[in-house]
Amino acid sequence: MNLALIMGVIVVFLTACLTSAYESKPGVPKKNQ
């Protein structure tokens, strides 16, 4: 039970990191890449 909860948190964390990495601000063009 705890392992599934931890895995879920990790997946959400990684998804948030990837999303913020690809589009930090929606609608704003990336200038630093």
From TrEMBL:
Q: Which domain of life is it from?
A: Bacteria
User: Which protein are we looking at?
Assistant: Lipoprotein
